[in-house]
Design goal:
Chain lengths: 484, 484
């Protein structure tokens, strides 16, 4: 740690980093401080190098520049550098800028290469889109537009609810594509779906809600977020028509989190009857729902069913993000809020981070308005549908006992097998470096008939036969035991 | 709400928005649904328009395209459109694409123009930088680099702690400029300073901490964030040498949040003696500090004093952001963490939002490595220093009783006046549309000698005399009463 004080100290001096860019370094010296000026320079540089503030190979100023910058005589600088070179901290060569020597600088801690396991050979995690198709050129064009047009007000503190351009574009897009009913004033821009459910849960808790219901099975994330907000969580069974609304009513919950378009992970669609029953329960109980419109953009067999929010916009919070359509890296999502929840949820957003990055918001607005998301989704639907068809066909061929559940939508196939053996399968899959999820990821302790969620976001059509072949190999001990 | 189900429904159809881009709309029809196909089309479009899903001027498909997309006869589409035109929903003109009529579409709710007050004539809020100088071209160049080079892994789920490129660049930058001691493995990228203190407070609470100390006066944000995390908050007085460490020890706090480089809002620097005493307390109490290195990049009279973190890196969390140096809009910040807090704080980040937007992170890494931040700061220091000098000179001239407190740093001047009158001043200032902060913003209920925080981030040098003139006018009733 370099620290000098005193009336004679001068401003920071300039060094050069490895790329020969001018850099600044904190190394003030003072005639009032203990020690000679030369000793102060030596001590400061020694410590900066030892403690990692200056790394191997970093250029330091020439003695002439140093002397000028610190307001000391050249002689003092030359002597200090000689001493440091003698000690092995600096490398001085005729005609070259002095540098921090390779030996002296502290090693940068070994990065987490060791921490990360070997990448899977077949990655069939169910929720990851094919980011290799991320439309880089179109996104950059939208970023350029955003950087060029952002106002000073938006560059400054801005509106924590989100920039008006994006809220307007989202209201239009969601109304058009998903039947969401809302004006821009009801849209809150979030930093992704997870943040959205977190804000919702915290706002509920602040209003006095005690218990929230989740689908069983469901993404454990919802359970975690509700628990973090101090809410009790009640699981409600899901059958072929979606969440069991009678069972929901018996939980006494104040709110429910659900995935009506494509239940995660079972893949079922919430039926029209259940939708009506759910809305009746929301009104009667004076409760709220949060609708995770998870992968409604990917329906392959027929038109997507409209959002639940459209039926009951004052009781259903609509939640979405670009993580499945564009890339998780963007961390952009949204909530469409009932009037009574608008202020409390926006207040939670302010507390969380004062609003989402605004150049990104403007870029997404431009991307939507130019029809780029529509274009990208049209392209991706063709691609994913081909992968899904290939996967279903390969499964029918190689694993005839497998039953494909749910509707033709989303980024994964849910497969039920007529035998158990989670532990054995997990061990085999790990050994073969195939990654997928099973019912146990969504229902802890589950040990019934094997139910696999096989994603194709990261699995090319060409890789499908090999991946299924590997899966069949991993299952073979279990299949064998069944045949016996 | 447009909702149709049934075996014959077809995929969503394409319309065109106001910019003639192809768009998609959820409007399935079904031979199994009640009503003729034509009636279903009419009803669906009517509702989409009435409920705002389709807005004024939006293009709908030609009857030919509609018929093809829905798999119905052209005649049905023509009849449905004629009916809707007759009802005033659509505008049909020979040779032009049919559109939603101006009259029919619901009005978009009047936006919050009404909500926002008239902008101030002189904005002297203390924490806002001059975003009009935001280096758009350089930032765009870094964004382009980021979009072009981001890996699929970073586009996907990525590392919630932050991309390695940015953590490495920050470790180097902060070591060099602020004397922060850390490798990239200790850096957590956040979505701004507020999120950082929130994560810190939540992690402390999860470890069993009960009470956190804050400087008095201080930014109320810290108080709010600690309270939200369920922590007690104890205020500790600040004098000319910074926080009173003896008083801190008496609070029994488990942690302290402070601004050593430039106490916010008093502007004092934490003295060397106090730094030593604080570190001794941290060790003895087994406590943590979070150092808000608020505006250390802006020191005008001499070199900035190095970060407290460098003295005690295993007990001091270092927090910073680009909000004061580049723009709040970017929502990019960082924490440098002691080893024992790394996992708990990263876990809070995962729960909050799974990590900060990664293209932005890579852009900032590029911006730092290319020396653009150094360059921007050199430019801005000159600009702000001129404003500060002009402001101090104008105050000395027009308000000779004003005492300028604290060090020559940051984005505001702290001014103490030998008379009170907060209420009267606030009323006058509001009437004159000058905005600044006073001690009461940092210490609720304060009613002592007037202490004003006059920011110059948004105040050009040329505007200084007029702004001070306005301030003097606003103060004149109070000055008068004193002279009497």
């Amino acid at each position: 740690m370099v620290r000098f004080t005193g009336a004679e100290s001068r401003s920071t001096f300039s060094a050069l980093d490895e790329t020969s860019q001018p850099v600044e370094l904190l190394l003030p010296v003072s005639r009032d401080a203990p020690g000679t000026l030369g000793a102060q320079i030596e001590d400061g540089l020694r410590r900066a190098i030892r403690e990692g503030a200056l790394r191997s190979g970093a250029q330091v100023p020439s003695t002439r520049d140093l002397a000028r910058q610190l307001g000391v005589s050249r002689r003092i600088a030359v002597d200090a550098y000689s001493q440091l070179a003698a000690e092995g901290y600096l490398t001085l060569r005729q005609g070259a800028r002095p540098r921090v020597s390779e030996a002296a600088a502290v090693a940068v801690p070994a990065e987490r290469a060791a921490r990360a396991p070997a990448p899977p050979r077949f990655d069939m995690r169910p929720s990851t889109p094919d980011v290799s198709a991320f439309p880089r050129a179109a996104w950059l064009r939208s970023l350029r537009e955003a950087v060029g047009t952002i106002t000073d007000a938006d560059l400054g503190l801005g509106d924590p609810q989100g920039v008006l351009e994006l809220r307007t574009a989202l209201a239009g897009y969601l109304g058009r594509v998903r039947g969401v009913v809302a004006g821009p004033d009801r849209v809150l821009v979030t930093s992704g779906y997870r943040q959205g459910i977190g804000l919702f849960c915290h706002a509920l808790a602040a209003r006095g809600a005690r218990r929230v219901a989740v689908e069983d099975p469901s993404n454990r994330e919802q359970y975690d977020m509700a628990t973090r907000a101090g809410l009790d969580v009640a699981g409600v069974p899901v059958d072929d028509a979606g969440i069991d609304v009678d069972a929901l009513a018996r939980t006494g919950a104040d709110a429910v989190m659900l995935t009506p378009a494509h239940q995660h992970p079972t893949g079922v669609l919430l039926s029209a009857e259940r939708r009506a029953a759910l809305c009746a329960w929301l009104r009667e109980r004076d409760a709220f729902a949060i609708e995770d419109d998870y992968d409604a953009e990917y329906r392959y067999d027929r038109a997507a069913v409209g959002a639940l929010q459209g039926l009951e916009p004052e009781r259903v919070v609509y939640a979405g993000s670009v993580s499945k359509t564009l890339a998780p890296a963007l961390r952009l999502g949204w909530l469409v809020l009932p009037a009574t929840l608008l202020e409390p949820v926006v207040a939670e957003k302010v507390a969380a981070d004062r609003g989402t990055a605004r150049i990104d918001q403007l870029a997404l607005a431009d991307f939507l308005v130019r029809g780029e998301l529509d274009r990208h989704l049209r392209r991706m639907r063709v691609r994913y549908r081909a992968r899904r068809d290939a996967l279903v066909a390969a499964l029918a061929d190689a694993l005839p006992e497998a039953e494909v559940l749910g509707i033709a939508a989303g980024l994964h196939v849910t497969v039920r097998l007529p035998y158990g053996g989670e532990d054995a399968l997990r061990e085999e899959a790990a050994r073969r470096r195939i990654v997928f999820e099973t019912m146990r990821d969504f229902r802890p302790g589950y040990n019934g008939p094997l139910t696999l969620m096989l994603g194709y976001g990261q699995l090319s059509e060409a890789a499908v036969p090999a991946a299924v072949g590997e899966l069949v190999e991993a299952l073979s001990p279990l299949r064998g035991s069944r045949r016996r």
